[in-house]
Fold:
Amino acid sequence: MKTNPDPLAPDPELEAALRAALRREDAAPEFTARILAAARTAPAKTPWLQRRTWAALAVAAALVLGAVRGLELRERQERRAGETAKAQLMVAMQITNRALQHTEERALDSLPPLTRR
Amino acid sequence: MNGNASTISGSLSQAAAIGCGLSFEEQLRTHQAMVLSLARNFLRDTAQAEELAQDVFLQLYRHQAAIQSPAHLVFWLRQVTSRRCIDAVRQRRPAVSLESIPEPSLPARPGDPFLSRRLQRLVAGLPEVPRLVMLLRYQEDLDPAEIAGVLELPLGTVKSHLQRSLVRLRAALNPAEAVPPRSTA
Structure:
């Protein structure tokens, strides 16, 4: 390189030499083939946002399923409780009915004969 | 292209990258010289440079969805390659220092293979960040503002690295021009 008295002055000659020295060089064909083969076997990574979206959807679906299942269980329990109460009421009514019949029969038996139809 | 690469079919060659409009194979073929040359000029080790470039492209393959445009692709590749170059060098001891490089024994001129090799070795002897700045300036022909963007450095720092590196290279090429160290007496 030619002598340049000012070390900070532009040096087009040096810059041209640097561009020539550092220019791009093509890759060998084997290099391209190797990367393509490696990429073909490498699993494509799901993007972060997409993974988060899928995770959020999965959580939401689990919550909805859980809520639906909870409602079903609650409804079933309420129905069962209602059926039990209904059965108990029926038994109570039968007992009451029987008691009334018995009382009526005893009342009729205790009446004088003239009053009997 | 040899037969091995041409037989790779299907998803790689046909799948268009999101936002970029190029398949991965097209991206690779278009930009492999850039990535590989950056790594090679930085590391001065062909095997390590190829390994680094392969890692960069596999990272690109896994992050296709993040690429928004062809310009973004080039920016992304330069940035990722630069970061990986610095990481690679920090994991090993520098192979060449500026002071250890022998003086040239032949007259030099631009385009001269001897001068090119000498400049390559001199650039390889620069510290990591100034070396990357020089590569992005003289290999990729980026202006200082673009280099600052890729390396996420202040513009003033990039200009300072460029100026100091050029002074250093010029001094190494022309020892007679070197500024003598200041006397402490």
